[in-house]
Design goal:
85% helix
Length: 399
């Protein structure tokens, strides 16, 4: 695996830390800036919305740039947004920096995925994707708890400074490892052609399935704290450990899926999705048992991110005529799920269905994802049948 792919994973680690670290900093931000906790929570929503909108827009804006220039520009804007955020005395400016940081993060993600896949042989595409996505899982294990600890010790601004500082080595490494020339594939494919390729049924269905899978993941992940403390019966001190356990499972799942999905991508997706649906239902039923709950948190983290990695690779495989925009649409779908899941889980909690309700919502979302995967499978069978029929027809004409 080229060293540059790991450099991209390092940059994604810093950006993933920023995306998720606010969950441990909201109270400090609200107190320091004199806003409500709900207003502080909007900073997380703004980042997710910025990621969804920014991924395709940033990729379209920078699709003709050399990839190194695009990566450095997006990462530079990301660093600057965190420096400004750490210095600002006002909530409005901080909110604006979160949107700007999300737009830059989305653009970086889209270009990073394309760059990583372009640097490896076809039989290593899933493994390269796993290295890049693995940066997010390491952020869950290390970055987010570290950000919360910095916030406890030196205030929320120190976490923003830390994200900016961790990103600087990635800038230097990108300058050293990523080729500076213009990619040849962009010149050969127009933006309209790429959008048309991604608008076909198979890529669209895969993106929908990806959004549902991630929605199920983040629905439960966002409400693990009340589940662990009020249903499982563990103390508040267990919450960071449980979140880290989910992150450890995520890292293991991404690593394993990256090795298997190159050879059998369809099997990874199918088995992973069925197991996820069963696992969320099992967690909802056994959440009061600490041993079962902890084991399932670890397992579901592995299944969720392993399946997600395989789905990202499938988008690229199903839309080969969209070499620059496939990554941006995959990034947008990922973040649609990251925004949709917590919102639906919150609705279920607000309706009074109890602290297991978000887990049941996750199971329901996975059932919808399985239905989408079934439609995708049927569409593929029809397409394959039509292709075979066309070949036979041409053979008969030739005879």
């Amino acid at each position: 695996m080229p060293f540059a792919v790991y450099v991209l994973g390092l940059a994604v680690f810093a950006q993933g830390t920023s995306e998720f670290m606010l969950s441990g900093l909201l109270s400090g931000i609200a107190t320091d800036l004199g806003v409500s906790l709900a207003a502080a929570g909007l900073l997380t929503s703004a980042f997710a919305i910025g990621m969804v909108i920014g991924a395709p827009l940033a990729a379209l804006a920078g699709r003709t740039w050399p990839r190194r220039r695009a990566l450095l520009l997006f990462l530079g804007v990301f660093i600057a947004s965190h420096v400004v955020g750490a210095l600002t005395p006002g909530y409005g400016v901080l909110l604006a920096t979160r949107v700007a940081g999300a737009l830059a993060n989305a653009g970086f993600w889209a270009v990073a995925l394309v760059t990583a896949l372009a640097m490896v042989e076809p039989h290593l595409r899933a493994r390269a994707t796993a290295v890049v996505v693995g940066g997010v899982t390491v952020a869950c294990v290390v970055g987010v708890p570290a950000g919360a600890l910095l916030g406890e010790l030196w205030g929320w601004r120190s976490a923003f400074w830390a994200v900016a500082l961790v990103s600087v080595p990635a800038v230097l490494a990108l300058l050293w490892t990523i080729p500076g020339g213009r990619s040849h594939d962009v010149a050969q494919v127009s933006a309209r052609s790429e959008l048309r390729a991604l608008g076909r049924p198979r890529p669209l269905l895969t993106l929908l399935v990806m959004a549902l899978v991630q929605g199920a993941t983040f629905c439960t992940f966002s409400y693990l704290e009340p589940l662990v403390t009020r249903v499982t019966g563990l103390g508040a001190g267990w919450v960071p450990a449980v979140l880290a356990l989910f992150g450890v499972g995520s890292f293991a799942g991404v690593t394993l899926a990256g090795r298997i999905a190159d050879a059998r991508p369809g099997a990874v997706v199918a088995v992973g999705m069925v197991a996820l649906a069963a696992g969320w239902a099992a967690l909802a039923l056994t959440a009061a048992n600490p041993v079962a709950a902890l084991a399932l948190v670890l397992l579901q983290g592995a299944l969720a991110f392993g399946t997600g990695t395989a789905l990202i690779t499938r988008v690229f495989d199903q839309a080969p005529d969209a070499p620059t925009l496939a990554g941006s649409f995959a990034t947008a779908a990922f973040n649609v799920g990251a925004a949709l899941g917590p919102w639906l889980g919150g609705l279920a909690l607000g309706a009074g269905f109890g602290f297991r309700a978000p887990v049941w919502v996750s199971a329901l979302l996975m059932c919808l994802a399985l239905a989408g995967a079934g439609a995708l499978s049927r569409e593929w069978s029809w397409a394959r049948h039509d292709s075979t029929r066309d070949l036979l027809h041409r053979a008969e004409e030739g005879a």
